[in-house]
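Provenance and format

Records in this collection were gathered into a single text stream. Each protein contributes a sequence line and a token line. The two records reproduced below are adjacent in the stream.
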Amino acid sequence: MPLGTLDSTPPPFFRQGPSALSKLIFFSTLAVLLMVADARFHVTQPLRALIATALYPLQWVALRPVVWTQSSSQYFETLNTSQTKEAAAQYKLGLQSQRALQVEQLTLENLRLRALLDMRERINTPALAAQVLYDAADPYTQKVIIDKGSLAAVQLGAPVLDEAGILGQVTRVYPSVSEVTLVTDHNQAIPVLNVRTGVRALAFGDAASYSGTLELRFIDANVDMVAGDLLTTSGVDGVYPPGLPVARVLKIERRADSAFARITCAPVAGVTGSLHVLVLHPLTEKILPRPEANVVTTKKGSKP
């Protein structure tokens, strides 16, 4: 039997249905129709909602590791950021506090300098501005070191005052620095005048207590003096200009077994906190020398 006469069609048992091209055309048309129907009439919206509702628990469970990872990384990032911001804020707060203290200190120093300039304008004596460097090393004396010496024409015995009143007296002069003995030192004495009554006295540093006070000695027990009286320089010593504040009376002790009163005074100058001072020229240069006594010479045997 010739080969060309054989039937090449498959038997009915092996039939595959419609062809692939027919399936492509059919399903493409169906897809287009469904898209048009969904866009126009929303026919698949309930089906979508049902499927989304059914799949939401699975999606929630599947996303938990991702959410936890993101939350933990965000927590640590936020913690590090917060710690960095807190450290920066603490640093800025420290700077602001330091600046506030500096401003307060500069304001106080400015006020003291203004008061010192006002004091200088009221004094007719030449004055030299100086700065306190440090306290003397001897704990049993009350002395300070200033930054002006003989090179700046500082003289031995020159009065030293701050913006409030008399601070002390120059007792040693070096080329670049000078030593100032404070009025509260036990070896220091200064003539004073009670402004209210005009009583003159001599104020000594209180050597008994080292409390930074002065003591008026050899004052009659019945003297007219009360607590709060202002004592100024009397000017009788030829060193201190008259009228400069020295101290205020703190207390008066009158004892029956003594003819003298014990009067304690507090210095008006900042003996423990002055930084800027004025060094005055001593008034001894302005005092005229004492006239020499006229000596009458007589010959031997003659009457004067």
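Adjacent record:
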Amino acid sequence: MAVVPNSPLRLTQEDLESIIRLSLDEARLRGASQAEAAVSQDTGLSVGVRLGEVETLEHQRDRSMGITVYFGQRKGSASTADFSLDAVRSAVAKACSIARFTAEDGCSGLADPELMAQAPPNLDLAHPWDVSADEAIDIAKACEAAALGFDTRINNSEGASVATHRGLHVYGNSHGFVGGYPTTSHTLSCVVLAGSGEDMQRDYWYSSSRDWRDLESGESVGRESARRTLARLGPRKLSTRRAGVLFVPEIARGLIGHFVAAIRGSSQYRQSSFLLNAAGKQVFPAGFSIAERPHIPKAMGSAPFDEEGVATRDRELVVDGVLTGYVLSSYSARKLGLSTTGNAGGSHNLLVAPTVEGGFDRLLATLGTGLVVTELMGQGVNTVTGDYSRGAAGFWVENGELQYPVAEITIAGNLTDMLRGIVAVGDDIDTRGGVRVGSVLLDEMTIAGE
């Protein structure tokens, strides 16, 4: 099939599947023992306004094809954004040429054929938003206006934005598997400032979903960004101390992300993880659990199969604090002498189970005296050693109640101790990303200040 290279038309899934089959046939004709190809098409609209004026207006239209061929254990890859017959054949030829000059790797190759997704479920991941640029601008303006009008102390803005994206991704390999599914994502956000002189504070809020009808209203997002900004006015510094630390859900997600990075197969076989060989060991406290649920309808992390065509499945990753296994692709699994977990490309909807009934307020009472962290800065995380040190801002707590905002502090510890030192997880679960977790209370960290 020949496709006009720069055609403005949106191609169908059948079109992309035909490109996959063409590339796989071409690889076979050139002598490849195995091959896999992925084709994607993405379109989007994003607008940004600041102080009532349009600052950015972008229309996105991207597409690409990647082909990987194997000659025995030799691997070669190439890609193109041109879907014409000649361009596809040229990309395959380049991949084959590269493969002939690469070293053999005994772990390379496709995932095992029996693991391919036979009947991928429809997970309801595509809800296109037929919003015009003018309509998106109006929504962003209303969002920012709600924030600026919330309180006279809100006196500046970094802007409000609306973004909508639509993707179609198809994967196929020489096992005979060809599959794809459409996705959408929509986001509405606002950032505003308050105060004057040296006491200028900023904060933000956002809403995101697969279905645009599930977004919070622009006015609601604007008001919440303003409320959060005002709460940070008049921050104090703290003297250096050790105390309990409570991560709000959007910050707790990052903590779980560091854990996942440490148990990826690549981190394990490269021996670059603070949780090296931790499978079967106590990593979290008793009562703590994490489940992977790839098939939640409309969820941001859902997928019927991974990037190798392997069927995704429910899995208990952490049970009663014990790590049950790693996050593996077929390659990393072979390097470790294990089997793929259907995680080529990453994990799919990690659900951290609450350990107590109640959300932020319940954990605030449990904390008693300590620090609530609402923002982290810097990249001071070493997933090889587990050393953790990041700039932070939030609120000091006494007697289970917020006392005053704090800024210009650093929180430090080691991720091994931090994970084992989790006291409680609340049920105020943030569902906006691929990790679903509530507020997380840690027993103690070093807080470096004055």
